[in-house]
Amino acid sequence: MLTVSHVTKTFFPGTVNERIALNDLSLELAEGDFVTVIGSNGAGKSTLLNAVAGRLAVDSGDVIIDGRRVNKLPEFKRARYVGRVFQDPLAGTAPTLTIEENLSLAWLRGKGRGLGRGLTRARRDQFVNKLQSLELGLEDRLTAKVGLLSGGQRQALSLLMAGFTNPRIMLLDEHTAALDPQRAELVTGLTERIVAEGGLTTLMVTHNMEQALRLGNRLIMMHEGRIVYEADAATKAKLGVRDLLQEFANIKGATLSDKAFLG
Amino acid sequence: MIGAVEVGLIYGVMALGVYLTFRVLNFPDLTVDGSFTTGAATAAVGILNGWHPVLATLAGFVTGFIAGGITGLLHTKGRIDGLLAGILTMIALWSINLRIMDGANIPLLRQDTLFTPLRDAGLLGSWAGAGILAVIVALLGVLVVWFLTTDLGLSLRATGDNGQMITSFGVSTDYTKTLTLALSNGFVGMCGALVGQYQGFADISMGIGLILVGLASVIMGQAILGQRNLWLAVFAVIVGAVIYRIIIFAALQVGLDPNDMKLITALLVIVALLLPRFKSVRGAVGRTVRPKTSEPAPEPALAAKEA
User: Which ipTM value was assigned to this complex?
Assistant: First the structure.
């Protein structure tokens, strides 16, 4: 479903600040795979997601979605295949538009937008149905502006909007990192459900090791732009946080970020 | 007074355009100063060449639309800063407008314009005439509200609200920004066409400083009526345009010179922008910064009078 093939991305090439964010990285996701990505700061996790989403152009290598090479497709065209939830809970929704208007925008992912009514009875019914599954009571607040919602509610809504049209690829970029533990737990649970219900092929970056172990059927660890450790479903089921930290230490030999410990 | 309301209603068309860029797209677009005259010039030349006034007015929309589209392309494809893109188009339009008019001024005396029927029936300057204008401008307001609730309109609003988000749902923000700028300046050009016909001439300098008039209308109207929902936000803009003209009318009545009006317009915008902050300061500190600042309208006129 998703193939990342020998992708390299260097920031500020030829300067003193040159940084290789992705170094000949290859990754293959089968349909329905849910891969969690961990690694220290600057390991290239977010760059990988941005390269798949089309926000960043890669220097070399290919990104192939559903058999189609998408290197040249700009971000807004790739959006047809790729759903995204960002770390910032405010990034995935439009604050001055209402909940139903936001849902309507997301509903038309990758489709042409003309002069048809943005909100129809049929669409509203669908939205109520989908919102009920969040169990946040948002279905009673369809005409409330999204800016009035809490961070957790907005992130839950973002998740629903990114996933309910069943995009080929779902990208989650530390989407629970900015939430308090309780909200993070809520959004983590929703993630599990939405991905499972849609059978979404998912790539999730996280700093939280427990989350990385709990969600998904595969796990990869990145360091300096490469995949340095990979666990398949069978291995992953047996892994604990301690094992991961040990792997980290083995590979890096030394320093771990504070965040990794705190996670 | 009725004259001020009439003029205010006509300028409401421009205010609708400025609303599209300034509020919906969150983009201060200076193209307006040029595209307004472009619309007026186009319509004037059209009428002189025997076009039907309706066609001439629509032609004003089209040339304004093109001007806005150019600003949009400069900003999106050319990656030029929004303010600068607007200024570039505005300055370039000065020469183009002179070319269109083949001079600095086109009188429309004794020509058939959109306002000829009203004038012949003796309705201009009466409340009935103002009522007819109000209905027409209100219809344009309804059109704007309708458009902004379509799928396309929603994506325009989301572009101004959160560009990253709407990109991630498959919308090219380059396209939506350019389209919004074009539509906005289409309204402005159409307003120029209407104003030219109303006052009986098109003039090269008629658009100077007009962006501030538009901003004053949008900001004041929405400060007074609020923008809780789309209907209110759009119609507040038209009301704001009328209020602006009434303030100008009042300022002239108290003996200010027409040459002072640009200063008064700027003061109006400044006051309307600063008032909400004074309110919050007052709320936080618990004392009155200025007595009775809840009505933004009379403030600048009074201030100007004292000066």
Answer: 0.90
